[in-house]
Input
Amino acid sequence: MRKILFISSICLLWSSCAPARFVEPLQKGEQVLTGNFGGPLAKVPGIGIIPIPFSSLGYGRGLSNQTTVFGNLHMTSLAFGVGQFELGASQKIWHNDRMGISSQLNTNILIDFYTSANRIWPQLDANYYFKYGKQSKPEQLDAMCKVYHRNYNMIYAGLSNWFDFYQIEAQGRPNNELWIPCIQIGNQWIRPKWSYQAEIKLLAPNYSNQDIVVPYPSVFETKGATGLYFGITYRL
Output
């Protein structure tokens, strides 16, 4: 239990171990593989300021043109003997040809493979996105067929919210933060097969970053941290 509390405190302290998922939901029937790398920026002695190397692999599928379901496995946690899984869905709330608003609901699950200890947190995100460059507009070929061009870019901004209802954190400390937010701003480069993502997060501005082993640079000084994330998507 001590190990899973340690890993969970790292993930929850900085609100998210990954960039935003499926800001623009997939089209119906689309399937993709995803990977990401990055985390909160930390001052590492002898190296400098680098993002903590959280990483995950995932899969997504469009149930409809408005709804995408996805799952992810966090590889860094596996190195500590903890399975960290993420199951969720992304939903279009409003959109037109150039912009939209979406929401993502995730369930984050941690399981210690050696002790069977576990923890679960819900996560709710909301994002606004704006497309620029060549747009993903459908060309009407006939009454039954559409072709979508994917060779454009997309900028987005949103709010990610983790909810932690457990009373105890790592080292037996009481949990005083039931709601852990972060602000995210990113860009995606959408291409026919491969797409790319870069994102910066202002992590956990309501959470103190004092009295911890590794110093974390933050625009909020004594609160939270700044995260940097990279992602890649391959369409099957």
About this structure: The chain has a mean pLDDT of 83. The first strand starts at residue 31 and ends at 44.
